[in-house]
Amino acid sequence: xxxxxxxxxxxxxxxxxxxxxxxxxxxxxxxxxxxxxxxxxxxxxxxxxxxxxxxxxxxxxxxxxxxxxxxxxxxxxxxxxxxxxxxxxxxxxxxxxxxxxxxxxxxxxxxxxxxxxxxxxxxxxxxxxxxxxxxxxxxxxxxxxxxxxxxxxxxxxxxxxxxxxxxxx
Length: 169
Fold this sequence. Notes:
Elements: H1 2-69, H2 74-168
Helix pairs in contact: 1-2
């Protein structure tokens, strides 16, 4: 009987543990999904920046070719080239900035995943400790119930003996 109750408690604990594990696996999957999203976003930004860089290079080449044929427009084209260089530098700076942010967020996600795994291990250890404490408390309770029952039987015997001796007197 006690063994069956113990097995039922263990099944309950196992069920809770499975639920907890499934929940943590779902959180892990969500974090991995977010990491994939950020990797995709970084790739998109990089492709856009490369396209902007290529467009800037193409425009620079056109301006250089035009500059050789039209000397009188040299100053105007030179200003356009300077603007394009600034845009290119700005685009490169933006790319470096976004890359830094994405790397930081990826590290944070990795740290969060590591922390979740550590918390899971701690929770599992804590659960084992609590199960051990529960088993000890149940054993002590059973011992106390047994002592109580023995004392109850002894008190009944004493009462019966007292009644018998009162009737005999």
